[in-house]
Amino acid sequence: MDVESARTQIAEEFAKARDAQRRGNEGMVRVCARRAAGIALRTWFAAHGRKPPLHDAIRLLRDVVSNESLPAAVREAAERLTTRVTEHFTSPFSTHPLDDATIIINYFLEQL
Question: What pTM was computed for the model?
Answer without folding.
Answer: 0.92
